[in-house]
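A common beginner's mistake is to predict each chain separately and then try to dock the pieces by hand. The better habit, illustrated here, is to supply every component at once so that their relative placement is modeled jointly.
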Amino acid sequence: MPALTLFGLFFIVPNIANLFLGFTDWTIYYLYEIKFNGLYNLKTLFSEETFWIALKNTLFFTLVTVIAKLFGAFLLAALISRKARFNNYLRAVLFMPVMISGMVVGIIFVAIYNPQSGIINSFLRSVGLGALAREWLVDAKYAMTCICVMEIWQWLGFHMAVFVAGIQSIPEEYFEAATIDGANSFQRMMRITVPLIVPSFSVNFVFSLISGVKVFTQVFSTTGGGPADATQVFGTFLYKNFSDGLLGYSASVGLVMTLVILVITMASLPILRKAEVEL
Amino acid sequence: MRRRLQGYFLKAFLFLASLVYMIPVWIVVVNSLKARRDANLLGVGLPVGLKFHLENYRTVFIEGGIARALFNGLLEATASVAIIILLASISAFVIARKKSRFMEFAFYAFIFGLIIPAALIPTFLVLNATKLINTYLGLILVFATYGLPISVFLYTGAVKSIPRELDESALIDGSSSLRMFYRIIFPLLKPVTVTIFIFSFIGAWNDVLIPLFFTGGDKWALPLTIYSFYGSKSQEWNLIFADIVITVSPLVAVYVFAQRYIISGMTAGAVKG
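With all components supplied together, the output reads:
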């Protein structure tokens, strides 16, 4: 099993090694001197305010993006699942950002959110709503939400397409029969579509959950964790310590991150299990 | 009549929604063709006097190290996808067919890999110990590793839907098991292979995390080079936008021609598993 060897070398072994490295004072400056320092790293970590900000932001990001992606994508899918030329155009346009690196999307949105001349503020001013203009990514109060919006923008089309594929796999006769029985379009959606696309729902949930908890690029490319660490998430916080050369310390950040993700996964296990049955 | 009106209203709403997606693209393209001072205004208008500053692209090509980054991206994405498909398909086959404790363990190890984040710091240590740090090979192997879990997962589901009698009859006909796999099973897995190919290729092409942690600038592909370019040219949006156009155009061009296959490939494989 060469696959397992590769996977073991670069995934399993590192994850196990992480258990030890997280409790060492290893730094890049003394690469060959590793000493255990017990719970020192964890103590420092828990007393560091940035860590709590990163935890809060990661959870916030995950919650907001998962809910918005699933609801938004389902609504759109329900509206455009019928085969028509206009719908094909919409699907193609909304799906397109999937092709673009999160890094590039981030840079584009830096331009869009630009406080002076970005399109959002220019538009608000030109329709007389200048009072609503904000310093989007620069203002700690809005920066994290702005990053969520960007992530949702990029992936909405993908999740929508998964729902559309699910809806289109439902036999047309079901809907016809329901129509003959006098069900209106809302009833048809709630009684036929929703129960029959549970598998697509699960797939979408798993994908958005994973990309939520592992968020890195979206923050790195827009704010880099700033202003003043207000938008740090686990991924960027870990990278910050890594680039400072604090290998042992960032390993313990990774360790805590893994634990948090495991807890989240356990909490959503009922949904995941459903996905496994359906897949 | 009311239905008709509703239909038009819905269409208008959806058209506005699609504008939310088209406007950013427009901003990028149109500003990449402007002179620096106009581009920095980030507006939606056409270049002043319809003068298209194509020289922005030449500047980016030279200063942005595009050729090198393009080569890096192609090499890294192609090689890692090849490894993923080769290894994931055969190990999924073994996992699905052999009933043993070890295979069960292997399957769940891969499943865990879907959820648990990669331990980047110790991976750095492993790469360092194997002398693969800051090499193409190391980068490709890490890309391939991170792509394995989802691929093994999808392939295993697909193999299970192929009747076991098929491989038995081939074995009776006297073909070796490896030959049987590549002649008979692998072609049947084509839909999943397409899905995995698209997913992994896009993933590797667009990823920034792995090269950022494990390699220096000379191994970076387009998305990361654009980031360093963006850092050094923060007041020259004409050049940044031109770099963005160059960076996204290979995949977007493929997408424009093959979007139907890409969308159905990515969603059908994911839904049916």
